[in-house]
Write a structure and sequence with these properties.
With about 230 residues, the protein is an alpha/beta fold. It folds into two domains: about 30-170, TolB, N-terminal domain (Rossmann fold, 3-Layer(aba) Sandwich); about 185-234. Helix content is about 55%, strand content about 20%. It is built from nine helices and six strands. A hairpin with a 4-residue loop joins strand 5 (about 125-130) and strand 6 (about 135-145). Helix 8 (about 205-215) runs antiparallel to helix 9. The relative contact order is 0.13.
């Protein structure tokens, strides 16, 4: 009896918390979008860029832009990463639509975005595909391209095309203009990408160092400050 009372005392807080948690999820009827790590297509030409960790950076930046739209519910990178590791699912460019749909169902997403990028003689191109989790099929595909230095406006453009592809209300034109004006230098995107990759690999000290460096050198980008706060809280 004593053991039963102890177990009941431990279980009750969880049991009472579950309905509130489930109700909170059900209350948010917005379609969820998960973005997988982008596939690196390489850099070609006389000036080759370091794109080693940019797949993670692209994933982070695209999520940031999609999150600006209140009509979209974003699946956090941390939750997606944890699930992929637990399920031993491949990421990178080898993921097909069926695997993406499987991931989407497990994280409660309605759509999953697969992406890739490449630098071709200074011309940067990003490709995106949207997988419908219910059907497991690619419902929309698009691409954007510009000079390598104009990478961030491309991310904003891709986010708007994805929003249109899933037939959700567009972001206000004023906000799109403001977001497109953010010209993130290649050095800043490299720092952000390397910091995200270090955090993913459990190299917390290195990630903290890189985030702090980005905050010092590029204080206008709040992503690094927010990521550092989350990392320190974990």
């Amino acid at each position: 009896m004593r053991h039963f009372t102890l177990l009941l005392g431990l279980a009750l807080p969880v049991l009472f918390a579950l309905p509130r948690s489930i109700a909170a999820q059900e209350a948010d009827t917005r379609p969820g979008i998960a973005v997988l790590e982008f596939s690196n297509g390489g850099s070609y030409g006389p000036k080759r860029e370091n794109l080693d960790n940019l797949g993670v950076g692209m994933q982070k930046m695209l999520l940031t832009e999609l999150q600006q739209n209140p009509a979209i519910r974003i699946v956090e990178r941390s939750a997606l990463k944890q699930l992929i590791e637990e399920q031993n699912l491949a990421t990178s460019g080898r993921v097909d639509a069926g695997t993406a749909a499987q991931v989407g169902r497990l994280v409660g997403a309605r759509y999953v975005v697969l992406g890739s990028f490449a630098d071709l003689f200074g011309n940067f191109r990003m490709d995106g595909r949207i997988v419908d989790v219910e059907t497991g099929e690619v419902m929309y595909a698009t691409s954007v391209q510009a000079k390598f230095e104009r990478m961030y406006p491309l991310v904003v453009e891709l986010a708007q095309k994805i929003t249109s592809g899933v037939k959700l209300p567009p972001l206000a034109a004023r906000v799109v203009r403001e977001r497109s004006a953010r010209v993130m230098p290649p050095e800043a995107s490299e720092l952000l990408s390397n910091a995200e990759a270090a955090a993913d690999m459990g190299q917390k000290e290195l990630a903290v160092e890189l985030y702090r460096r980005m905050i010092r050198e590029f204080p206008q980008y709040t992503e690094a400050r927010e990521a550092l706060q989350q990392l320190n809280a974990s």
